[in-house]
Amino acid sequence: MRVFGWVCGGILAHVAAFWCVTATADLALSAGGYGTPGTYKVETCNDTSNTRRNSDYDCYGDFTPDGGTVGDPVYVYLKDTGHDYPDGTEFDAQQGIEPETLQRVGLWGIVGEL
Fold it and tell me: Whole-angstrom Cα distance, residue 80 to residue 40?
């Protein structure tokens, strides 16, 4: 029984370490720790799942940095957003180092990353 506990504890430690390494960058971006703040406006979202049980929404839209001008929006494709945003929806977002890296900021962005 003790060996089983050690094995389960080791597996749990590896899973927690993997989550920390992979999720901290997105969590920091959602919390506004780095990146360019701005607004994302959804043009359209599509369900890319072939099953009726699960939905995988991909969205297309424009990211406008805060303080930007009319010519500044950047067209961004968001893969597997987890939510079917209605066309025209706008939300605060943070753009990462790579232009296609975009996270919703604020409470719901952080909750979504956790």
Answer: 16
For the chain, the helix, strand and coil percentages under 3-state DSSP, each to the nearest 5 = 30, 30, 40
Mean of per-residue pLDDT scores for the chain: 79
Q: Please give the pLDDT value at position 26.
A: 73
Strand spans (E) along 34-108: 36-47, 57-65, 74-78, 90-95, 102-104
Predicted structure pTM score: 0.67
What distance in Å separates the CA atoms of residue 35 and residue 62, rounded to the nearest whole number?
16
Question: In this predicted structure, what is the pLDDT of residue 108?
Answer: 63
Residue, of 71 and 41, whose pLDDT is higher: 41
Closest CA to 61 of 83, 80, 39, 82: 39
Chain CA centroid to CA 91, Å? 13
> In the 8-state DSSP scheme, what is residue 20?
H
Picking from 101, 114, 111, 82, the residue whose alpha carbon sits closest to that of residue 38 is 101
